[in-house]
Amino acid sequence: MLSTQQKIHFSSYSGLYDIIVPKDNLLRKINDLIDFSFIYDELLEKYCHTNGRTAESPIKMFKYLLLKTIYTVSDVDVVERSRYDMSFKYFLEMAPEEEVINSSSLTKFRKLRLKDMDLLNLLINKTVSIALEKGIIKSKSIIVDATHTHSRSNPYTALEVLKERSKLLRKAIYQIDEEYKVNLPHKNESNDLDQELTYCKELQRVLDQDQSISEIPAVKEKLNLLKETIEDTKEYYLLSKDDEARLGHKSVDSSFFGYKTHLAMTEERIITAAVVTTGEKGDGPELPRLLEISQQNGMEVDTIIGDAAYSGKDNLQLAKEQNIDIIAKLNPGVSQGHRKEGDHFHYNKDAGMFICPAGHLAIRKARQGKKNIGKNQADTYYFDVDKCKVCPLREGCYKEGSRTKSYSITIKSELHKEQMAFQETDYYRKKSKERYKIEAKNSELKNVHGYGRADSYGVQNMKMQGAMAIFTVNLKRILKLI
Protein backbone atom coordinates (compact mmCIF):
# COMPACT_ATOMS: atom_id res chain seq x y z
CA MET A 1 0.00 0.00 0.00
CA LEU A 2 1.28 3.45 -0.91
CA SER A 3 0.40 6.44 1.18
CA THR A 4 -1.26 9.23 -0.80
CA GLN A 5 0.62 11.76 1.33
CA GLN A 6 4.39 11.86 1.42
CA LYS A 7 5.82 11.93 4.93
CA ILE A 8 7.83 14.90 6.16
CA HIS A 9 10.57 13.88 8.57
CA PHE A 10 11.26 16.19 11.50
CA SER A 11 14.40 15.53 13.51
CA SER A 12 16.40 17.44 16.07
CA TYR A 13 19.52 16.19 14.27
CA SER A 14 18.66 17.58 10.81
CA GLY A 15 20.95 20.54 11.39
CA LEU A 16 23.88 18.14 10.98
CA TYR A 17 23.31 18.14 7.24
CA ASP A 18 24.18 21.85 7.00
CA ILE A 19 27.44 21.17 8.82
CA ILE A 20 28.51 17.88 7.22
CA VAL A 21 27.17 18.04 3.63
CA PRO A 22 28.82 21.00 1.83
CA LYS A 23 26.96 23.22 -0.64
CA ASP A 24 29.04 21.93 -3.57
CA ASN A 25 28.34 18.26 -2.80
CA LEU A 26 27.12 16.47 -5.95
CA LEU A 27 24.10 14.89 -4.25
CA ARG A 28 23.05 18.17 -2.64
CA LYS A 29 23.27 19.90 -6.03
CA ILE A 30 21.17 17.16 -7.70
CA ASN A 31 18.52 17.50 -4.98
CA ASP A 32 18.45 21.26 -5.52
CA LEU A 33 18.31 20.91 -9.31
CA ILE A 34 15.43 18.49 -9.80
CA ASP A 35 12.07 17.85 -8.21
CA PHE A 36 11.73 14.07 -8.01
CA SER A 37 7.98 14.18 -7.42
CA PHE A 38 7.48 13.22 -11.09
CA ILE A 39 8.64 9.70 -10.12
CA TYR A 40 5.86 9.52 -7.50
CA ASP A 41 3.28 10.64 -10.07
CA GLU A 42 4.46 8.12 -12.68
CA LEU A 43 4.46 5.16 -10.28
CA LEU A 44 1.30 5.97 -8.32
CA GLU A 45 -0.80 3.47 -10.28
CA LYS A 46 1.72 0.68 -9.66
CA TYR A 47 0.75 0.53 -5.98
CA CYS A 48 -2.41 -0.46 -4.13
CA HIS A 49 -3.86 2.39 -2.06
CA THR A 50 -6.06 0.31 0.26
CA ASN A 51 -4.42 -3.04 1.11
CA GLY A 52 -1.12 -4.25 2.50
CA ARG A 53 1.52 -2.63 4.67
CA THR A 54 2.76 0.82 3.78
CA ALA A 55 5.40 0.70 1.05
CA GLU A 56 8.63 2.65 0.97
CA SER A 57 8.42 5.93 -0.93
CA PRO A 58 8.98 5.30 -4.66
CA ILE A 59 11.07 8.49 -4.73
CA LYS A 60 13.44 7.09 -2.11
CA MET A 61 13.65 3.75 -3.94
CA PHE A 62 14.39 5.49 -7.24
CA LYS A 63 17.09 7.58 -5.55
CA TYR A 64 18.69 4.40 -4.23
CA LEU A 65 18.95 3.13 -7.81
CA LEU A 66 20.40 6.46 -8.89
CA LEU A 67 23.04 6.23 -6.15
CA LYS A 68 23.93 2.72 -7.40
CA THR A 69 24.56 4.13 -10.87
CA ILE A 70 26.49 7.20 -9.73
CA TYR A 71 28.86 5.24 -7.49
CA THR A 72 28.75 1.79 -9.23
CA VAL A 73 28.09 -0.32 -6.13
CA SER A 74 25.93 -3.36 -5.34
CA ASP A 75 22.44 -3.26 -3.80
CA VAL A 76 23.85 -4.36 -0.45
CA ASP A 77 26.59 -1.73 -0.43
CA VAL A 78 24.43 1.21 -1.48
CA VAL A 79 22.05 0.42 1.41
CA GLU A 80 24.92 -0.11 3.84
CA ARG A 81 26.55 3.17 2.83
CA SER A 82 23.26 5.01 3.34
CA ARG A 83 23.46 3.86 6.96
CA TYR A 84 26.50 6.00 7.74
CA ASP A 85 27.12 8.36 4.77
CA MET A 86 25.39 11.65 5.61
CA SER A 87 25.39 12.84 1.99
CA PHE A 88 23.45 9.67 1.07
CA LYS A 89 20.98 10.24 3.92
CA TYR A 90 20.52 13.86 2.85
CA PHE A 91 19.93 12.84 -0.77
CA LEU A 92 17.42 10.17 0.29
CA GLU A 93 15.63 12.75 2.47
CA MET A 94 16.07 10.61 5.57
CA ALA A 95 16.38 11.80 9.13
CA PRO A 96 19.97 11.23 10.37
CA GLU A 97 18.80 8.61 12.88
CA GLU A 98 16.34 6.88 10.49
CA GLU A 99 16.75 3.16 9.73
CA VAL A 100 17.65 2.08 6.19
CA ILE A 101 15.67 -0.27 3.93
CA ASN A 102 16.39 -3.95 3.31
CA SER A 103 18.52 -4.31 0.17
CA SER A 104 16.15 -6.98 -1.25
CA SER A 105 13.52 -4.23 -1.59
CA LEU A 106 15.52 -2.73 -4.47
CA THR A 107 15.19 -5.93 -6.51
CA LYS A 108 11.43 -6.00 -5.95
CA PHE A 109 11.17 -2.31 -6.83
CA ARG A 110 12.94 -2.89 -10.15
CA LYS A 111 10.91 -5.98 -11.05
CA LEU A 112 7.47 -4.93 -9.80
CA ARG A 113 7.31 -1.13 -9.96
CA LEU A 114 9.49 -0.29 -12.96
CA LYS A 115 8.23 -3.16 -15.12
CA ASP A 116 6.36 -2.17 -18.33
CA MET A 117 7.37 1.46 -17.85
CA ASP A 118 9.15 3.58 -20.46
CA LEU A 119 11.69 4.80 -17.92
CA LEU A 120 14.32 5.52 -20.59
CA ASN A 121 12.33 8.18 -22.44
CA LEU A 122 10.79 9.54 -19.22
CA LEU A 123 14.17 10.33 -17.65
CA ILE A 124 15.73 11.69 -20.85
CA ASN A 125 12.71 13.93 -21.39
CA LYS A 126 13.02 15.25 -17.84
CA THR A 127 16.69 16.18 -18.15
CA VAL A 128 16.29 17.71 -21.62
CA SER A 129 13.38 19.81 -20.32
CA ILE A 130 15.56 21.09 -17.47
CA ALA A 131 18.41 21.89 -19.87
CA LEU A 132 16.06 23.78 -22.20
CA GLU A 133 14.44 25.70 -19.32
CA LYS A 134 17.83 26.81 -18.04
CA GLY A 135 19.02 27.87 -21.49
CA ILE A 136 21.82 25.29 -21.56
CA ILE A 137 20.91 23.89 -24.97
CA LYS A 138 21.55 26.56 -27.58
CA SER A 139 22.54 24.50 -30.61
CA LYS A 140 20.14 22.96 -33.12
CA SER A 141 22.41 20.03 -33.91
CA ILE A 142 22.30 16.45 -32.69
CA ILE A 143 25.28 14.12 -32.81
CA VAL A 144 24.34 10.46 -33.32
CA ASP A 145 26.23 7.25 -32.64
CA ALA A 146 25.76 3.77 -31.17
CA THR A 147 27.65 2.24 -28.26
CA HIS A 148 27.80 -1.47 -27.52
CA THR A 149 27.25 -3.18 -24.18
CA HIS A 150 28.45 -6.73 -23.54
CA SER A 151 25.93 -9.20 -22.19
CA ARG A 152 26.64 -10.07 -18.57
CA SER A 153 27.13 -13.69 -19.63
CA ASN A 154 29.72 -12.93 -22.26
CA PRO A 155 32.64 -12.95 -22.90
CA TYR A 156 33.16 -14.36 -19.41
CA THR A 157 31.72 -17.67 -18.28
CA ALA A 158 30.36 -18.13 -14.75
CA LEU A 159 33.65 -19.86 -13.91
CA GLU A 160 35.73 -16.89 -15.10
CA VAL A 161 33.62 -14.39 -13.18
CA LEU A 162 33.82 -16.42 -9.97
CA LYS A 163 37.60 -16.74 -10.31
CA GLU A 164 37.98 -13.00 -10.94
CA ARG A 165 35.73 -11.97 -8.03
CA SER A 166 37.43 -14.36 -5.59
CA LYS A 167 40.82 -13.10 -6.78
CA LEU A 168 39.85 -9.47 -6.10
CA LEU A 169 38.56 -10.45 -2.66
CA ARG A 170 41.81 -12.22 -1.75
CA LYS A 171 43.79 -9.25 -3.02
CA ALA A 172 41.80 -6.87 -0.78
CA ILE A 173 42.48 -9.14 2.22
CA TYR A 174 46.22 -9.43 1.53
CA GLN A 175 46.57 -5.65 1.33
CA ILE A 176 45.37 -5.52 4.94
CA ASP A 177 46.99 -8.66 6.32
CA GLU A 178 49.33 -10.77 4.18
CA GLU A 179 49.49 -13.45 6.87
CA TYR A 180 45.71 -14.05 6.67
CA LYS A 181 46.28 -16.41 3.74
CA VAL A 182 46.71 -19.35 6.14
CA ASN A 183 43.08 -18.94 7.31
CA LEU A 184 41.61 -19.15 3.81
CA PRO A 185 40.59 -22.37 2.02
CA HIS A 186 42.97 -23.79 -0.56
CA LYS A 187 42.47 -21.99 -3.90
CA ASN A 188 40.77 -23.98 -6.66
CA GLU A 189 43.20 -24.56 -9.53
CA SER A 190 40.88 -26.55 -11.80
CA ASN A 191 38.54 -25.29 -14.51
CA ASP A 192 35.54 -27.11 -13.08
CA LEU A 193 32.60 -24.80 -12.26
CA ASP A 194 31.31 -26.99 -9.41
CA GLN A 195 34.69 -26.97 -7.69
CA GLU A 196 35.06 -23.20 -8.08
CA LEU A 197 31.56 -22.67 -6.71
CA THR A 198 32.37 -24.88 -3.72
CA TYR A 199 35.60 -22.95 -3.11
CA CYS A 200 33.83 -19.56 -3.27
CA LYS A 201 31.12 -20.71 -0.84
CA GLU A 202 33.77 -21.92 1.58
CA LEU A 203 35.67 -18.63 1.21
CA GLN A 204 32.46 -16.75 1.96
CA ARG A 205 31.75 -18.95 5.01
CA VAL A 206 35.22 -18.40 6.49
CA LEU A 207 35.03 -14.64 6.10
CA ASP A 208 31.47 -14.40 7.41
CA GLN A 209 32.67 -16.08 10.62
CA ASP A 210 35.50 -13.57 11.10
CA GLN A 211 33.96 -10.11 11.29
CA SER A 212 37.31 -8.55 12.21
CA ILE A 213 38.26 -8.85 8.54
CA SER A 214 34.90 -9.14 6.74
CA GLU A 215 33.57 -5.85 8.17
CA ILE A 216 36.47 -3.81 6.82
CA PRO A 217 34.84 -1.71 4.00
CA ALA A 218 37.38 -2.63 1.29
CA VAL A 219 36.91 -6.34 2.00
CA LYS A 220 33.18 -6.13 2.58
CA GLU A 221 32.50 -4.59 -0.85
CA LYS A 222 34.43 -7.36 -2.63
CA LEU A 223 32.76 -10.02 -0.45
CA ASN A 224 29.28 -8.71 -1.30
CA LEU A 225 30.10 -8.77 -5.02
CA LEU A 226 31.25 -12.38 -4.68
CA LYS A 227 28.02 -13.29 -2.85
CA GLU A 228 25.93 -11.74 -5.65
CA THR A 229 27.94 -13.68 -8.24
CA ILE A 230 27.42 -16.96 -6.33
CA GLU A 231 23.65 -16.36 -6.24
CA ASP A 232 23.58 -15.44 -9.94
CA THR A 233 25.51 -18.60 -10.80
CA LYS A 234 22.93 -20.67 -8.88
CA GLU A 235 20.01 -18.97 -10.64
CA TYR A 236 21.49 -19.19 -14.15
CA TYR A 237 23.39 -22.44 -13.61
CA LEU A 238 22.14 -24.00 -16.85
CA LEU A 239 22.03 -20.78 -18.84
CA SER A 240 24.98 -20.54 -21.20
CA LYS A 241 24.09 -17.15 -22.66
CA ASP A 242 21.65 -14.25 -22.55
CA ASP A 243 18.64 -15.32 -24.64
CA GLU A 244 18.00 -11.84 -26.05
CA ALA A 245 21.61 -10.73 -26.62
CA ARG A 246 22.96 -11.00 -30.17
CA LEU A 247 26.32 -11.04 -31.90
CA GLY A 248 27.27 -7.64 -33.29
CA HIS A 249 30.36 -6.38 -35.13
CA LYS A 250 32.56 -3.40 -34.29
CA SER A 251 34.77 -4.08 -37.33
CA VAL A 252 35.47 -6.84 -39.85
CA ASP A 253 37.51 -8.86 -37.34
CA SER A 254 36.07 -7.61 -34.03
CA SER A 255 32.72 -8.72 -32.60
CA PHE A 256 30.79 -8.55 -29.33
CA PHE A 257 27.84 -10.39 -27.80
CA GLY A 258 25.24 -8.11 -26.26
CA TYR A 259 23.26 -4.96 -27.00
CA LYS A 260 23.50 -1.60 -28.71
CA THR A 261 22.35 1.75 -27.40
CA HIS A 262 21.77 4.28 -30.18
CA LEU A 263 22.24 7.83 -28.88
CA ALA A 264 21.48 11.38 -29.99
CA MET A 265 23.28 14.19 -28.18
CA THR A 266 23.47 17.98 -28.50
CA GLU A 267 26.71 19.89 -29.01
CA GLU A 268 26.42 20.81 -25.31
CA ARG A 269 26.71 17.05 -24.56
CA ILE A 270 23.15 16.54 -23.31
CA ILE A 271 21.68 13.23 -24.51
CA THR A 272 18.30 13.91 -26.12
CA ALA A 273 17.28 10.41 -27.27
CA ALA A 274 18.25 6.76 -26.85
CA VAL A 275 17.06 3.53 -28.44
CA VAL A 276 18.22 0.15 -27.07
CA THR A 277 18.41 -2.77 -29.51
CA THR A 278 20.08 -6.15 -29.73
CA GLY A 279 23.70 -6.18 -30.89
CA GLU A 280 23.22 -7.14 -34.53
CA LYS A 281 21.10 -4.11 -35.47
CA GLY A 282 22.57 -1.50 -37.83
CA ASP A 283 23.15 2.10 -36.78
CA GLY A 284 21.65 3.94 -39.75
CA PRO A 285 18.07 2.57 -39.58
CA GLU A 286 17.67 3.96 -36.03
CA LEU A 287 18.24 7.59 -37.10
CA PRO A 288 14.56 8.39 -37.83
CA ARG A 289 13.56 7.20 -34.34
CA LEU A 290 16.36 9.18 -32.66
CA LEU A 291 15.33 12.29 -34.56
CA GLU A 292 11.66 11.80 -33.68
CA ILE A 293 12.36 11.32 -29.95
CA SER A 294 14.68 14.34 -29.85
CA GLN A 295 12.00 16.49 -31.44
CA GLN A 296 9.35 15.14 -29.05
CA ASN A 297 11.63 16.09 -26.16
CA GLY A 298 11.64 19.70 -27.32
CA MET A 299 14.69 19.84 -29.58
CA GLU A 300 14.64 21.93 -32.73
CA VAL A 301 16.96 20.13 -35.14
CA ASP A 302 18.54 21.57 -38.28
CA THR A 303 21.72 19.46 -38.40
CA ILE A 304 22.52 15.79 -37.75
CA ILE A 305 26.18 14.82 -37.22
CA GLY A 306 27.28 11.19 -37.53
CA ASP A 307 29.53 8.71 -39.29
CA ALA A 308 29.07 7.03 -42.66
CA ALA A 309 26.48 4.62 -41.23
CA TYR A 310 23.93 7.46 -41.16
CA SER A 311 24.33 8.64 -44.77
CA GLY A 312 22.02 6.04 -46.30
CA LYS A 313 19.60 7.06 -49.01
CA ASP A 314 16.53 6.81 -46.76
CA ASN A 315 18.13 9.06 -44.14
CA LEU A 316 19.18 11.61 -46.76
CA GLN A 317 15.61 11.66 -48.07
CA LEU A 318 14.17 12.10 -44.56
CA ALA A 319 16.58 14.94 -43.83
CA LYS A 320 15.75 16.67 -47.12
CA GLU A 321 12.01 16.51 -46.38
CA GLN A 322 12.59 18.22 -43.00
CA ASN A 323 15.21 20.67 -44.31
CA ILE A 324 17.92 19.14 -42.12
CA ASP A 325 21.62 18.90 -43.05
CA ILE A 326 23.35 15.55 -42.52
CA ILE A 327 27.03 15.81 -41.62
CA ALA A 328 27.98 12.23 -42.48
CA LYS A 329 30.30 11.00 -45.19
CA LEU A 330 28.79 8.95 -47.95
CA ASN A 331 29.80 5.31 -48.05
CA PRO A 332 33.00 5.12 -50.17
CA GLY A 333 31.20 2.63 -52.40
CA VAL A 334 28.79 5.43 -53.36
CA SER A 335 31.19 8.35 -53.62
CA GLN A 336 34.20 6.50 -55.10
CA GLY A 337 32.78 3.22 -56.37
CA HIS A 338 34.10 -0.27 -55.64
CA ARG A 339 36.57 -0.50 -58.54
CA LYS A 340 40.12 -1.63 -57.86
CA GLU A 341 43.05 0.67 -58.50
CA GLY A 342 44.31 -1.42 -61.41
CA ASP A 343 40.95 -1.31 -63.22
CA HIS A 344 41.67 0.43 -66.57
CA PHE A 345 38.27 0.55 -68.28
CA HIS A 346 37.88 4.00 -69.82
CA TYR A 347 34.85 5.90 -71.02
CA ASN A 348 34.77 7.08 -74.63
CA LYS A 349 32.53 10.16 -74.59
CA ASP A 350 32.15 10.21 -78.37
CA ALA A 351 30.95 6.62 -78.61
CA GLY A 352 29.15 6.78 -75.27
CA MET A 353 30.67 3.42 -74.40
CA PHE A 354 33.49 2.01 -72.23
CA ILE A 355 36.72 0.65 -73.70
CA CYS A 356 38.38 -2.35 -72.01
CA PRO A 357 42.14 -2.46 -71.19
CA ALA A 358 42.72 -4.39 -74.45
CA GLY A 359 41.14 -1.54 -76.42
CA HIS A 360 37.84 -3.22 -77.32
CA LEU A 361 34.71 -1.07 -77.31
CA ALA A 362 31.54 -2.27 -75.58
CA ILE A 363 28.91 -3.40 -78.02
CA ARG A 364 25.81 -2.37 -76.03
CA LYS A 365 24.63 -1.03 -72.71
CA ALA A 366 21.58 -1.51 -70.50
CA ARG A 367 20.27 0.32 -67.43
CA GLN A 368 19.49 -1.77 -64.35
CA GLY A 369 16.99 -0.82 -61.63
CA LYS A 370 14.25 1.80 -61.37
CA LYS A 371 14.75 5.49 -60.78
CA ASN A 372 14.31 6.62 -57.14
CA ILE A 373 13.21 3.14 -56.05
CA GLY A 374 15.47 1.04 -53.82
CA LYS A 375 19.15 0.95 -54.73
CA ASN A 376 20.79 3.32 -57.21
CA GLN A 377 20.44 2.49 -60.89
CA ALA A 378 23.45 1.13 -62.79
CA ASP A 379 24.56 1.25 -66.42
CA THR A 380 25.90 -2.12 -67.55
CA TYR A 381 28.17 -2.25 -70.61
CA TYR A 382 28.48 -5.54 -72.53
CA PHE A 383 31.53 -6.63 -74.54
CA ASP A 384 31.97 -9.10 -77.40
CA VAL A 385 32.60 -12.36 -75.56
CA ASP A 386 34.24 -13.96 -78.64
CA LYS A 387 37.02 -11.34 -78.44
CA CYS A 388 37.32 -11.89 -74.66
CA LYS A 389 37.93 -15.63 -75.15
CA VAL A 390 41.10 -15.02 -77.15
CA CYS A 391 42.19 -11.75 -75.49
CA PRO A 392 45.79 -11.83 -74.12
CA LEU A 393 44.61 -9.86 -71.07
CA ARG A 394 41.72 -12.19 -70.28
CA GLU A 395 43.28 -13.59 -67.07
CA GLY A 396 41.56 -11.93 -64.09
CA CYS A 397 39.13 -10.16 -66.43
CA TYR A 398 37.22 -12.88 -68.24
CA LYS A 399 36.04 -16.05 -66.49
CA GLU A 400 36.47 -19.11 -68.69
CA GLY A 401 33.13 -20.47 -69.91
CA SER A 402 31.18 -17.27 -69.23
CA ARG A 403 28.62 -16.40 -71.87
CA THR A 404 28.90 -12.65 -71.29
CA LYS A 405 31.42 -10.05 -70.19
CA SER A 406 30.03 -6.88 -68.66
CA TYR A 407 31.19 -3.77 -66.79
CA SER A 408 28.78 -1.86 -64.53
CA ILE A 409 28.82 1.71 -63.29
CA THR A 410 26.47 2.84 -60.53
CA ILE A 411 24.54 6.02 -61.31
CA LYS A 412 24.53 8.35 -58.36
CA SER A 413 21.11 9.61 -57.36
CA GLU A 414 20.42 13.34 -57.07
CA LEU A 415 20.46 12.94 -53.29
CA HIS A 416 23.96 11.48 -53.41
CA LYS A 417 25.20 14.16 -55.80
CA GLU A 418 23.86 16.89 -53.50
CA GLN A 419 25.48 15.24 -50.45
CA MET A 420 28.83 14.91 -52.26
CA ALA A 421 28.76 18.62 -53.08
CA PHE A 422 27.73 19.46 -49.49
CA GLN A 423 30.74 17.50 -48.15
CA GLU A 424 33.04 20.04 -49.82
CA THR A 425 31.56 23.05 -47.99
CA ASP A 426 33.18 24.88 -45.04
CA TYR A 427 30.02 24.37 -42.96
CA TYR A 428 30.30 20.60 -43.36
CA ARG A 429 33.98 20.62 -42.35
CA LYS A 430 33.31 22.81 -39.32
CA LYS A 431 30.38 20.74 -38.04
CA SER A 432 32.11 17.40 -38.60
CA LYS A 433 34.66 18.41 -35.93
CA GLU A 434 31.89 18.14 -33.29
CA ARG A 435 31.51 14.36 -33.69
CA TYR A 436 34.27 13.49 -31.21
CA LYS A 437 32.04 14.67 -28.36
CA ILE A 438 29.76 11.64 -28.53
CA GLU A 439 32.75 9.29 -28.41
CA ALA A 440 33.75 10.94 -25.12
CA LYS A 441 30.19 10.52 -23.83
CA ASN A 442 30.22 6.81 -24.72
CA SER A 443 33.47 6.47 -22.79
CA GLU A 444 31.96 8.18 -19.73
CA LEU A 445 28.93 5.89 -19.77
CA LYS A 446 31.12 2.78 -19.94
CA ASN A 447 34.14 3.61 -17.83
CA VAL A 448 32.52 5.72 -15.10
CA HIS A 449 29.00 4.27 -14.85
CA GLY A 450 29.50 0.63 -15.78
CA TYR A 451 27.63 0.72 -19.09
CA GLY A 452 30.20 -1.51 -20.80
CA ARG A 453 28.53 -4.63 -19.36
CA ALA A 454 24.86 -5.39 -18.77
CA ASP A 455 23.75 -5.71 -15.14
CA SER A 456 21.01 -8.20 -15.99
CA TYR A 457 19.50 -10.20 -18.84
CA GLY A 458 17.20 -9.00 -21.61
CA VAL A 459 16.42 -5.83 -23.57
CA GLN A 460 14.00 -4.48 -20.93
CA ASN A 461 16.62 -4.66 -18.19
CA MET A 462 19.13 -3.10 -20.57
CA LYS A 463 16.73 -0.20 -21.13
CA MET A 464 16.42 0.28 -17.37
CA GLN A 465 20.19 0.29 -16.96
CA GLY A 466 20.50 2.74 -19.84
CA ALA A 467 17.83 5.00 -18.34
CA MET A 468 19.69 5.34 -15.04
CA ALA A 469 23.12 5.79 -16.65
CA ILE A 470 21.93 8.43 -19.15
CA PHE A 471 19.91 10.23 -16.46
CA THR A 472 23.08 10.37 -14.33
CA VAL A 473 25.40 11.74 -17.04
CA ASN A 474 22.80 14.30 -18.14
CA LEU A 475 22.34 15.57 -14.56
CA LYS A 476 26.11 15.83 -14.06
CA ARG A 477 26.49 17.73 -17.34
CA ILE A 478 23.66 20.16 -16.49
CA LEU A 479 25.21 20.85 -13.08
CA LYS A 480 28.54 21.58 -14.76
CA LEU A 481 27.03 24.05 -17.25
CA ILE A 482 24.70 26.06 -14.99
TrEMBL record:
Residues 355-478 form the Transposase DDE domain. It holds the Pfam family DUF772. InterPro entries: IS1182_transpos, Tnp_DDE_dom, Transposase_InsH_N. Residues 19-111 form the Transposase InsH N-terminal domain. This is IS1182 family transposase. The lineage of its organism: Bacteria, Pseudomonadati, Bacteroidota, Sphingobacteriia, Sphingobacteriales.
